[in-house]
């Protein structure tokens, strides 16, 4: 993108009060960002209300600094790009949504925008099993040829990205900050890896901090780019349900993994299932709803799940009595009749082996191999 075009785009997008819909109307009338400013702005009075035209008359104070910063960012790596609405390789599915971003900042493998994508989203505070599921499905669906899209958040998002990076089709991280920022900071290394082996995407200008209002807007891009959306774990008020709703409104498939009826993190998925989402237990449950032409590999080619660690016979009995719902130490003592001290030792060994997770409130849960 040439500097003059970049400056015109940024002037439009950084003008206070000029929202995305007004900007789209203005661009439709003018034909390009530069044409908006190529003459008196009063000629757009049939397109914009007077207060917006007045705001547009005055360039934002930080405009020159932002143009310089963005130009330097682009020049610093051949893997960095800015994609405008209407560019030839703008994601086709995203273009079909009601509110496609006007600009997309990219870092990484731009060609992934043309790949078949599936969104995987969920809780920022998943259970150990939920994190395992997100990583396993991310890996297996990537092996099946789908590029995994998620939001780089803690919990399910991060696990899905990690699993996809172990696959073959890679992953796309859509963030609610400028691409020169990483949020959460704990995902600095993950963001760098995605930029190197996958693709980082944002609609926000460089320097944009992690503002709470940006993340629900970010979700529409995740939903809009993908053929479907898999929700792994979500509470009833989770932002993941916003992503699922946006996917449904865009005519995309919505999938949900069921969980324990006692787990708050499963209630969002159960609500989606009641609303018609497809119940998912296996990779094939997702793939069979998508056109076969989108898959580069058959489900059988996906990497096998790791085997459950071998444990002593008495601990196998503990696992059998636990089931898969959260359970307290006292309840396990009642079920099995073991001394509490001996049972505590076995649970610690099972936890270290990855077969059991310790939950809040002194509860334990068996971890199934996803």
From TrEMBL:
Q: Which domain of life is it from?
A: Bacteria
**What sequence ranges are listed for the domain Smf/DprA SLOG?**
82-290
Coiled-coil stretches are none
Membrane-spanning intervals of the chain: none
Residue span, DprA winged helix domain: 303-362
In terms of Gene3D superfamilies, this protein maps to: 3.40.50.450, Winged helix-like DNA-binding domain superfamily/Winged helix DNA-binding domain
Family affiliation: Belongs to the DprA/Smf family.
Name of the featured protein: DNA-processing protein DprA
